[in-house]
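Case 297 in the screening queue. Each case pairs one protein sequence with one candidate compound; here the compound is nicotinamide-adenine-dinucleotide. For every case the pipeline is the same: read the inputs, emit a complex structure as C-alpha cells, and attach any notable structural observations.

Predict complex for case 297.
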Amino acid sequence: MAGHIAFIGLGNMGSGMAANLVKAGHGVSAFDLSEAALAAAVASGSQRAASVSEAVKGAAVVVTMLPAGKHVRGVYAEEVFAAADSNPILIDCSTIDVASARAVAAQAEGHGLAMVDAPVSGGIAAASGGTLTFMVGGPAEAFARAEPILAKMGKAVIHAGDAGAGQAAKICNNMLLGASMVATCEAFVMAQKLGLDPQTFFDISSKASGQSWSMTSYCPVPGPVPTAPSNRDYEGGFAAALMLKDMKLAMEAAAAVDASVPMGAAAESLYQAFANLGGAGKDFSAIIKLLDGSWRS
Ligand code: NAD
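Case 297 output:
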C-alpha cells in the first residue's frame, strides 16, 4: 500500500477515527501495541501493520492518537521520522502537553516534515460518529494539508495558530469546563440546601446569567437534561480521570507561562480528591457527589 494513511494508536478514540477514514475511501495502515485494539481496527477495514515503521513507510499522511506526551515523543523520535519516506503530513490528535507538542513539531521541521497538533473536543461517540471538533496548531501550509483529512473525522476543523496552539486551545477550554462544572455542582447543592427544587433552579439558571454548557448539556443532577450522564448513574460521558489529566496539563502550562489560575487549581485538586476516592471512572459531573457528601465508591 502506498499513498495511504498510517494510523498509530487505535484505542477508544483512534478506532472510530480510523474507521471513518476507511469509510471515506482511504487505505489505512494501522498499528497499536495492543493486539485487541489492532484486531478491532482490522475488523473495521484497516490493514494490519507489524510496527509503527511498517505503517509509516510509503504513507502520505500519519495520524497518531496516543495517551500522553511521552508516547508521542517516543513514537515520533524512535520510529516515525526515520520511516517517513514519502514526505507525509504528520497529524498528532492526542491531547498532550504544549511543550511536547512544540518539541515534536520542531523535530519534524528538522527532518523537513510538516506537522500539526490537532487535539479533539468530543468523546468516543463523536470519534465513531465523525463529529469531532479539531483544534489545530501549525503553519498555514501544514494546516491546509491536514484539514481535508481531519474533515473526514469531524464536524469542525479550526486553525488555532502555530505549533502547540491546538493543545493550548484544548487545555484552556477544558480548564474552563472543569471549573465551570464544579461551580455548577456547588450551585445545585446549595440551591437544594436552601430549599429550591433542582428542576426549578435549572429552569431559572439555564435562562439566566449562570447558564453554561455544564448546566445545559451535562447537568450534574438527574432530570433536567435527560441525555446527561447524571441520568445513568454518571456512567459514560467524559471520565473524571480524563478531566483530571487535562487539568494537570493545564496547571503545567500555566506554571510554564506564569498564568494565574486559582479557579483551575482549585478544580484540579477537587478532581484529584475525587479520583483518589474511587471516582476516576465516573463522568466528571459526578463530582457533585463529593460536594453533597453522598459519594460512595
Ligand atoms: P486509549 O488508551 O484508549 O488509546 C490509546 C492507544 O494507544 C492504546 O490502544 C494504546 O495501546 C496505544 N499506544 C500506546 N503507546 C503506543 C505505541 N508506542 N505505539 C502504538 N500504540 C500505542 O486512549 P483514548 O481514550 O483513545 O485517548 C487517546 C487520546 O485522546 C488521549 O490523549 C486522550 O486524552 C484524548 N482524548 C480522549 C477522549 C475520550 O473521551 N476518550 C476525548 C478527547 C481526547
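Case 297 observations:
- Residues 8-14, 31-34, 37, 52, 65-67, 71, 75, 94-95, 120, 123-124, 238, 242, 245 surround nicotinamide-adenine-dinucleotide (CB under 6 Å).
- The first helix runs from residue 14 to 23.
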